[in-house]
């Protein structure tokens, strides 16, 4: 399979243009415009409206349908009038009315596009409407179907398999897919990173990851099983078996965790003071287990051993 046929190696270009916006008086601002035939109305960002001191000429109530939503959302927008000029001679322009919105799109639509890749495929006489550079200029104007075709100045021309050049009053615009070899390299890097994570997850469950090798110089698994059988005794009709230490030294180095268990039980007592019903149920379970011989009272003598901390589970 040819790598250029893989969908992941293509970047989709939207139809955009850099334009000059004129407001009331002498105010003018360079802005990025998005052509969108899927929108019935044209929109302008509120910050651009304020910068140009555009006056509200009326208000309109719209029903906004968004993706995956069956029910529309009702919104009221201020309507402003503005003039859009081309940055290329003969500096053609159109006058439009647009709805003021706080945001058109929060996405940086050209974050992953290399401008030099765009320049390499353009015809020599092309006046490209957008630089496709990563700038702070987000989409500030959306030219909807109400004015979009007033800005078209010629027929679209196919320059690649899935890429078209569309002349407009504001310059030549690109729309469609373009092959990006750098995108393929990024995908390979991500694939390698993913494999590394999978290997780490696999090794996490290996016995060696828990410092428990299959062969230990001090004690083998077969020795542990033999000791378990030998040390199992019956005392007062109960089975008893000591803890299985990995090495004899661990028993002395482990020490006594009685104070840790005591501290946790002190925290349990605090919860009992705030919930008497919890204490009554806990106390009843403890008495029942003592009578059944499941647990027994511990002596006050300090010893080297392991005291199991516990929480109430009722």
TrEMBL record:
<protein>
    <submittedName>
        <fullName>Uncharacterized protein</fullName>
    </submittedName>
</protein>
């Amino acid at each position: 399979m040819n790598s250029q046929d893989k969908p992941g190696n293509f970047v989709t270009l939207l139809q955009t243009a850099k334009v000059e916006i004129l407001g009331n008086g002498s105010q003018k601002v360079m802005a990025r415009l998005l052509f969108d035939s899927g929108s019935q109305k044209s929109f302008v960002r509120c910050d651009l409206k304020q910068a140009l001191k555009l006056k509200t000429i009326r208000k309109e109530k719209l029903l906004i349908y968004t993706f995956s939503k069956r029910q529309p959302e009702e919104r009221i927008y201020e309507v402003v009038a503005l003039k859009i000029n081309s940055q290329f001679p003969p500096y053609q322009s159109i006058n439009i009315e647009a709805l003021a919105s706080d945001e058109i799109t929060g996405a940086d639509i050209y974050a992953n596009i290399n401008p030099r890749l765009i320049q390499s495929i353009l015809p020599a006489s092309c006046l490209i409407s957008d630089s496709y550079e990563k700038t702070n200029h987000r989409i500030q104007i959306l030219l909807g179907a109400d004015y979009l075709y007033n800005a078209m100045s010629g027929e679209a021309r196919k320059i690649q398999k899935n890429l078209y050049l569309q002349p407009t009053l504001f310059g030549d615009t690109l729309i469609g897919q373009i092959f990006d070899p750098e995108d393929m390299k990024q995908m390979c890097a991500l694939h390698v990173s993913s494999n590394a994570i999978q290997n780490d997850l696999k090794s996490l469950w290996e016995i060696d990851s828990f410092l428990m090798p299959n062969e230990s110089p001090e004690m083998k698994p077969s020795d542990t099983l033999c000791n378990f059988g030998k040390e199992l005794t019956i005392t007062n009709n109960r089975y008893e078996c000591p803890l299985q230490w990995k090495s004899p030294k661990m028993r002395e180095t482990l020490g006594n965790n009685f104070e840790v268990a005591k501290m946790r039980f002190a925290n349990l007592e605090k919860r009992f003071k705030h919930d008497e019903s919890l204490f009554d149920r806990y106390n009843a379970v403890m008495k029942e287990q003592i009578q059944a011989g499941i647990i027994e009272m511990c002596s006050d003598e300090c010893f080297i051993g392991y005291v199991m901390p516990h929480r109430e589970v009722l």
